[in-house]
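Q: I have 291 residues here and want to know how they pack in 3D. Can you give me a structure?
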Amino acid sequence: MISADLAHLSPNQLQLELSEIQSKTRPDKSTRKRQLETLTVNQLLSTTALKSVNLSGEQRIVRKSESFPFPGGLRTLFRSSSSFREFQSLTQLLELNIPCFVPVLAHEVRRGPLIEQTSLITIEVPDGINLSKWFRDPQSQKDSSIEPQLLLKELPKLLKIFSEIHKNGFYGQTLFAKNIFMVIKEGSLMFYLYDLPRSKNRPNTSLHFPMASYDLACLDRWAHLWLSRSQRLRLLKVYLKELNLSPDWKRWAKKIELRRQRFLRETFLSWASHWVRRRLKQVPIIGKWVR
């Protein structure tokens, strides 16, 4: 699966339309960069230089790979790979003009109906940090130049992104802090979404309350550690206002809090479910099926 911008190119002579790329080999002493040569698909997927390579502009190309040695591949039986699903999710976000990492290529290797390996290549934005790392690593806060006051001021912008994707029937389902990327551009804080292989798309339908509250609970898993309850309620009201919903914030807050408690295994059922899965993972063969 190749990005629409690259679809006109031959799969065997896929050429990224990026002017320059940092050389993995010994660079020229004057420019320290070289032109990106035409790469075949196999070269694109196999070269270690593409694990994380800085580009000449404000972009970076990254390859994410995953292997499923037998019998682990059994859980991929007759399913599309996570790389394909994430590629489709990011493509849908781009169509909605939502800031996200740009998908370039999704690839999978199958043996019969089983997936053995998947790869996803995306164009990311450098010089930023995900929300989770920023919160847990004080040094990262200094390196990223994102002050707590600035983040607090710009957080309503993130809730407006949530409301916009929900208006269009898109639900990320993995919108945790680790999947929200932040970068400062022209003095303003920008948010980018990525790593959404479990997203759901329900276009032309009314708001799906369970899925929407689930997305908000993903964010609240981080927010409740940093923000007060009143601050989080103000953000929730920003979200509801963008959706032109009745101010029934108590119903939303209750659902979000319950889901967050399940995430953190603070309820008996969530703790018991986690305990069972952990035991099943220790069972040969069966454990390969358990997430």
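Q: Anything worth noting?
A: The chain has a mean pLDDT of 77. The chain is about 40% helix and 20% strand.
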